[in-house]
Amino acid sequence: MKEANKRNTFREGPISPAFIAESIARHSSKTDIGAHSIFLGQVRNDLIGNHQVRAIEYTAYTEMAEKAFHVIREEVFAKYQLTCMHIYHSIGRVEAGEICLFVFTSSRHRRDAIDACNEVVERIKKEVPVWGKELFDGEDYEWKVNR
Fold first, then answer.
1. pLDDT confidence of 145, banded at 50, 70, 90?
2. With 70 as the cut, is the pLDDT of residue 2 above it?
């Protein structure tokens, strides 16, 4: 099992810029890496009907979600020549403008890093049991629909 699979994917609340910067900095000593691809998912303040999204409250079936993340990691590692892959997803409340998903892939060459990162993000949206409740002003909310 790859080291990334031993980590908990979920982070309580938003994923901080400092955490992202530290993750990137830890790779500077890995001189066999020639490319990184990073996806940062950010909560938008969409207008839905006449309501402005203020935050998203993420919930998950965590045991099943971690298994799905594991499958995605293993299959993407098998398909692309990657050096590293990190996936972090928020659980709990994330305000508009904050980061809720951080996918970071590394490889010797850019094409593998870029293609792998894109595939991971697309598969998370389709395969991982994570749900978001879009929170408006007051008590109003609506379950998020992936757009």
1. low
2. no
Per-residue pLDDT reduced to its tens digit, 115-137: 999 999 999 999 999 999 999 98
What does the domain layout of the chain look like in residue ranges? 3-143
CB 102 within 8 A of CB 40: yes
pTM of the model: 0.90
In CATH terms, is domain 3-143 a member of 3.90.1170.40? Answer: yes
Q: Which residues contact 108 (CB under 8 A, 6 or more apart)?
A: 32, 33, 34, 35, 81, 83
Q: Which residue has the tokens 């792998």?
A: 116
In whole angstroms, give the CA distance from residue 33 to residue 83.
7
Report how many helices (DSSP H) and strands (DSSP E) the chain contains, helices first. Answer: 3, 9
Which burial class, exposed, middle or buried, applies to 18 when counting CB atoms under 10 A from its CB (0-12, 13-18, 19+)? Answer: exposed
Which of 102, 95, 98, 92 has the alpha carbon at shortest distance from 124?
102
Beta strands 10-12 and 82-95: pairing type?
Answer: parallel
pLDDT, residue 143, reads: 74
Cα–Cα distance for residue pair 126/110, rounded to 1 Å: 25
